[in-house]
Amino acid sequence: MPRCEDAPGICPRVVGLAMAVASSPICSMTKRTHVHADGFHFRTMKRGEVDLAVDWAASEGWNPGLDDAACFHAADPDGFLIGLVGDDPVAVISVVRYGASFAFLGFYIVRPDQRGKGYGLRIWNAGMAALEGRNVGLDGVVDQQDNYRKSGFRLVYRNISSGRDRASRRGRSDHHVVAVAALPATLSECPAR
Questions:
Q1: CA-to-CA distance for 27 and 90, rounded, in angstroms?
Q2: Fewest CB atoms within 10 A around its CB: which of 2, 54, 66, 129?
Q3: pLDDT digit string (tens) for 83-127?
Q4: Separation of alpha carbons 42 and 179, rounded Å
Q5: The CATH number of the domain where 130 resides is what?
Q6: How many domains does the chain have?
Q7: In a domain, 10, yes or no
Q8: 3-state secondary structure 93-135
Q9: Domain of 138?
Q10: Which of 92-102 are b and which e, b meaning 16 or more Cβ less than 10 Å from the residue's Cβ?
């Protein structure tokens, strides 16, 4: 994962499903703003708009890491797209490239009152176009698995977030969960078995 000055160390991201695609066959995206007949257009987000994507993710019940946005933005400032109708934000996606051959897709969200109008597919296609020829990973939601597969992604593993899944786990003990601060600093401090 990328590193940045704002959040030292590795930036964690655990939400939904981890999927991977070998590469994207769609051509590269240009820096222009693309305007459609219905007024929908997308462009690279300004840094302050990345926080909007974080807020939208939180309202979906996702659990983006506290410093993920800063880390990913530092790795690829052009890797965050926003879809607008006029000046009204309606869709977001992050398509962060790092290294010569890897990218990570996330924050694929259409505002709930704007869903079903094709904005999600259009910003998805724009994002995928920016990732041509790269291995792409994503954390996704179960409800979108079929759509991810249509774009060539395959399930690699399932993980559980502490957001929406928490409600389904109520009443179950997390006795096996240990606070990071309670862990030994080095392996030599671990008790022998």
A1: 24
A2: 66
A3: 999 999 999 999 999 888 999 999 999 999 999 999 999 999 999
A4: 41
A5: 3.40.630.30
A6: 1
A7: no
A8: EEEEEECCCEEEEEEEEECHHHCCCCHHHHHHHHHHHCCECCE
A9: 17-189
A10: bbbbbbbeeee
